[in-house]
Design a protein that fits this description.
The complex is a heterodimer of chains A (620) and B (457). Chain A has 620 residues and is an alpha+beta fold. The chains are: A alpha+beta (620), B alpha/beta (457).
């Protein structure tokens, strides 16, 4: 009934969509299998893309040729650049999305790709021959052959939804859970675990009193995610902020004994960084109010998302508590918040390419690996799609290092450290975050995307043009010297010290208050730079100059670490032979089998003195 | 890759070659006790308790080699945490070699440079700075640097660094929280408290850096420059000083013949006269060096000995030299020379009034009193306190880097918008502090350290 596919993607969430799009664009024949075609690229939780560290990931996906950035730009209703006051290394783009339009746009893009076929059904098991995956089997018993399979089941594997004391199977509210795959994988030698996550109620925007809340508007000059996007968001919708209060807390507390989180009915570890409102009240009981963000789910719809109120308390308790919050006095719910438990597979069972270690050509991407967040899932989908295609065509593995991309940090963390709770990206996870900025994702990654066959020529042209202009500005700064007469008035105006002799513009730019835009305006030499069109290029050049010494130092550290990464270890090395290793280090090294000293140093449980011991051993 | 490192039993003499009454040979490794037992009569060493000494005879193939004392240290209670045997034998090179070659025939291997201490470090018996201190202890050949190296072994230094590091880690976490959760209602890192911690670290690292300048000289020798106008008698005095105090036959690595010859000990401290080649040869060219140039050569010296020719110089000229800016800010010992000749009374009175010593380089007693003066100067100006912490070149470099990073944090705390840079400089400081105790090692550090050891330790 089916042709043989190159790549079969199971699950059409954020990871599945990127995986399918990537492999198909590179030339593979892809089958995207989903239990419900109506929920392709569904945003299960927050109707927003980006945020601190996550925005950087989306830009990286885009620079490589992935689609999340493009879809977001087309369907966003508000844009804010976060952390503007914290320095350029921390700037993070974030967008509120129109949930329905986002899903529709993704589906349309996939439908336009000739290499993508669709099949709506539950996949219940894998076809495995001699430790290699050769296809999948559906609930109807149909066999579909494929050279590689990517599992992106999200929260659907044996998903169990909890609302108060009620629970029922489900991968997402209103959708069935998927069964069969976990059990088969366990038989094949995989270890699985259980995770939980929660989501807040959705409410009727017509029943909210916005006058009692603070408005949070988008940026006056909104940015965007994709490097290809031209034209900025013209209209934006605002979010609103309100707070819980003591009454809210006591009403919620009354329901605790009925909360599955508190009475132990839920197995699985929840995310520390995205706690439910029950968590917040019990762990931070000294606080008498918690912030609630009221986010519209779309441009036209009345549905509203209550960010900060993730809960699995009984629906009656939820409603009462909501109604005690300013602005929510007459609120009506569309659906209550709930908690969901689901199977995941500790990602230490994966290689850098996201291929599983026990079974060849089988890839895992997304929440199935224990991550949380659309962006974290999408980038894994992208990487697994590229690698599945490459493996089938005997091309090189596609691996990004920790110093090249947040994506590299994420995957390296997952396969070396594993994760006990849902893994979410933070800038502090990236030791080289000053090199991994949202403004330079294209300079870092587009060439790689082109080499691997995913990023198109247009992106490359844009990058080359960008580099040209940056070099022009750099030259201009280096060679142009300015006399005190011409610049001191400006310097005093911006609060910088006067100069007494001729200085190059480059040295002046190092001062904190001096702006590159101002310096360019003062020159008469034609640079070929358009002050408004090339605003971003000017910004990026400025960052490079002001952060020069830090960037240089980080680059040196990167070089040092890459030397450790080049000290290769035989993956079959017997660590039991070295008595001077710590017990946990020995166990982890034996389990994960790192291929370099650098990788060994990042495995959790391996101490620095273990690394010293290894280095000395390798030298001898 | 040689993986036999831990299975090998190693051996080396622990005392230097040369005639002496007793010599010590040491073995470490799983088989050290059992192999020693093979050639030891009188007792079954496999059955004795740890930390015991046994008197007996070493015999191999019907030949009695020597009567020895054997000390047994059972793993893990030994220097290397492995089984260790120390054999005290008679100090003849022949006997030492014979015993070692017998063990080699039994399958033992001669230890590599520093291998005993390397095993101690690898087996977790000491951290990196303690291991380094062992090297320093062995090569310390003055009373004070010995004391300082002991202090370092006891780990006082590592502990304080660790405390500071922990404080900084707390801040690092708070700042990261601020950066990653800026959208939420979170506590911001208290900038004042951070400022305090930064100042504490700056203070301590400056203290250690200063002590480096002080104690380093104690380990490598206090540098003394003898200078003054041409023909004041520098060479006479220098030669007298050196002949009076015999130079130590030292094996300070990297020193040239020149420097060894010009090294003496005064009051338990090594004193090195620098840039003396010119003086000793006493060529006219060197004598023509002006005062400025001479003082420039004294830039790195801890003590400058400035000599006046009381017979040939005028009081005016002497006063000018004393008042010149160049002699200020230096640790100077002023000396009036040529008292054996007839000196102007006004000059004598001036020198007496200002407590400047007058000597004759040709007088034995005068040279002795000069040595005392130098000793007093060392004790007053150079050795700061008894419990001086010792840091070495590596620590000095790491601490200088910590200093720079912390100064950057201070600067950035003033600018409100540089939180990401503050986080970065804190991260660097943590890394440099960790370098000192070996918590963050890279192979450069390791290979440097262990190559400094000589065999037997």
């Amino acid at each position: 009934m089916f042709a043989k596919y190159d790549v079969i993607v199971v699950g059409a969430g954020h990871a599945g969509c990127e995986a399918a799009a990537a492999a198909a664009s590179m030339g593979s024949k892809v089958l995207l299998a989903t239990m419900n075609m109506g929920t392709i690229a569904q945003m299960s939780c927050n109707p927003a893309i980006g945020g601190v560290a996550k925005g950087q990931i989306v830009r990286e996906i885009d620079a490589l040729g992935g689609l999340t950035g493009i879809v977001t730009d087309k369907t966003m209703i508000q844009f804010r650049m976060l952390n503007l006051s914290k320095g350029p290394a921390m700037w993070s783009p974030r967008a509120q999305s129109d949930r329905m339009r986002f899903a529709e746009e993704w589906r349309l893009l996939l439908e336009k790709n000739k290499n993508v076929d669709f099949w709506q059904e539950m996949i219940t098991s894998l076809l495995v021959k001699e430790k290699r995956v050769v296809g999948v089997i559906t609930a109807l018993g149909l066999e579909i052959k494929g050279s590689a399979v990517i599992l992106t089941n999200g929260t659907f594997l044996n998903g169990l939804i909890h609302i108060g004391e009620k629970n029922f199977g489900g991968g997402r509210t209103g959708e069935r859970s998927s069964k069969g795959i976990t059990e088969q994988l366990e038989d094949l030698g995989f270890i699985s675990g259980r995770m939980k996550t929660g989501t807040p109620p959705r409410v009727d925007g017509r029943s909210i009193n916005y006058k009692k809340m603070e408005e949070q508007a988008g940026d006056s000059v909104p940015g965007c995610f994709s490097f290809l996007t031209r034209g900025l968001l013209k209209k934006q919708k605002s979010c609103h902020i309100t707070y819980t209060n003591k009454k809210t807390h006591s009403l919620l507390k009354d329901g605790f004994k009925k909360s599955p989180m508190f009475n132990g009915r839920i197995r699985g570890v929840g995310p520390r960084y995205c706690p439910s409102i029950e968590d917040k009240i019990s762990r931070f009981s000294e606080r008498n109010r918690h912030q609630i963000f009221v986010e519209p789910e779309g441009w036209n719809t009345i549905e509203v998302y209550v960010n900060g109120f993730s809960t699995s308390l009984p629906e009656g308790v939820q409603l009462k508590a909501l109604r005690s919050i300013d602005g929510f006095e007459s609120v009506k719910m569309f659906r209550p918040g709930y908690a969901i438990e689901y199977d995941y597979f500790p990602p230490t069972q994966l290689k850098h390419t996201l291929e599983t270690k026990p079974i060849k050509n089988l890839y895992f991407a997304g929440q199935i690996n224990g991550t949380t967040g659309y962006e974290e899932a999408a980038c894994q989908g992208l990487v697994s799609g590229i690698n599945a295609h490459n493996k089938i065509n005997q091309k090189k593995d596609f691996v990004l290092s920790r110093s090249e991309a947040y994506i590299g940090v994420l995957i390296d963390d997952l396969i070396n450290k594993g994760t006990e709770e849902p893994y979410r990206m933070f800038t502090s996870r990236a030791e080289h975050r000053i090199l991994l900025r949202q403004d330079n994702a294209d300079l870092r990654l587009t060439k790689k995307g082109v080499l691997v066959g995913l990023a198109n020529k247009k992106r490359l042209c844009l990058v080359e043009e960008k580099i040209n202009k940056i070099n022009k500005i750099d030259d201009f700064l280096k060679t142009t010297k300015v006399v005190p007469k011409k610049i001191n008035k400006y310097l005093t105006r911006v609060g910088s010290a006067k100069i007494s002799e001729k200085k190059s513009l480059e040295s002046l730019l190092k001062r904190p208050n001096v702006r590159l835009l101002d310096l360019i305006k003062k020159t008469t030499t034609p640079l070929g730079i358009n002050l408004s069109k090339d605003k971003l290029i000017i910004e990026q050049t400025e960052i490079n100059h002001k952060y020069k010494s830090y960037i240089k130092k980080e680059q040196e550290l990167v070089d040092k670490m890459s030397r450790l990464d080049e000290s290769k270890i035989d993956p079959n090395f017997n660590y039991k032979k070295i008595p001077s290793l710590s017990a946990e280090g020995k166990e982890k090294l034996q389990k994960i089998k790192p291929i370099s000293i650098g990788q060994a140093s990042r495995i959790s449980g391996v101490t620095p003195s273990d690394i010293s011991v290894l280095i000395v051993y390798m030298k001898k | 890759m040689n993986t036999s490192i831990n299975n090998d039993t190693i051996i080396a003499p622990s005392t230097p070659y040369g005639l002496s009454a007793v010599s010590l040979i040491r073995l470490s490794g799983k088989k050290s006790i059992s192999l020693t037992n093979k050639i030891f009569l009188n007792k079954d060493l496999n059955k004795v308790k740890s930390h015991t000494i046994h008197f007996g005879t070493i015999k191999y193939k019907n030949n009695i080699i020597d009567e020895v004392l054997v000390s047994i240290f059972k793993s893990p209670r030994s220097y290397t945490k492995e089984n260790v045997v120390e054999i005290s034998c008679h100090g003849s090179p022949y006997i030492i070699n014979k015993i070692i070659s017998i063990f080699i025939k039994l399958g033992v291997r001669i230890a590599n440079k520093g291998e005993f201490t390397l095993r101690s470090f690898l087996n977790g018996n000491m951290d990196l700075s303690q291991a380094e201190a062992v090297a320093d202890l062995i090569s310390s050949n003055s009373k004070n640097s010995h004391k300082i190296a002991l202090n370092q072994i006891r780990g006082n230094f590592s502990k304080k660094i660790q405390e500071l590091r922990n404080e900084l880690i707390d801040f690092s976490s708070l700042i990261e929280l601020e950066l990653d959760f800026s959208e939420e209602d979170v506590e911001f890192a208290n900038r004042n408290k951070l400022s305090n911690t930064v100042n504490k670290i700056l203070e301590y690292s400056k203290y250690l850096i200063n002590s480096y300048d002080a104690t380093n000289v104690l380990k490598n020798g206090i540098e003394v420059v003898i200078t003054g106008k041409p023909n004041v008698g520098k060479s006479t005095i220098l030669n007298a000083l050196i002949n009076e105090e015999k130079a130590i036959v030292s094996s300070i690595p990297g020193t040239t013949r020149d420097l060894i010859e010009d090294t003496i000990t005064i009051g338990g401290n090594i004193v090195r006269f620098v840039d003396t080649a010119g003086i000793r040869k006493a060529t006219n060219k060197i004598e023509k060096i002006g005062v400025n140039k001479a003082i420039e050569k004294a830039r790195n010296a801890s003590i400058v000995i400035y000599i006046f020719d009381l017979f040939n110089e005028s009081l005016e000229s002497i006063k000018n030299q004393i008042n010149s800016k160049i002699l200020k800010n230096k640790n100077v010992i002023l000396i009036g020379n040529k008292s054996d000749l007839k000196i102007n009374t006004s000059i004598i009175n001036f020198f007496k009034k200002n407590n400047i010593i007058i000597i004759s380089g040709k007088n034995f007693k005068d040279i002795k009193s000069l040595i005392n003066t130098i000793n007093l100067n060392i004790n007053k100006n150079i050795i700061r306190d008894e419990s001086s912490i010792s840091i070495n070149q590596r620590h000095y470099e790491s601490l200088s880097k910590v200093n720079n990073a912390m100064e950057n944090v201070k600067k950035n705390l003033k600018e409100k918008s540089n939180t990401d840079l503050i986080a970065l400089d804190i991260k660097y400081s943590l890394s440099y502090l960790g370098e000192i105790t070996g918590e963050i090692t890279n192979d450069d550090i390791l290979s440097n350290i262990f190559s400094k050891f000589c065999i037997g330790k």
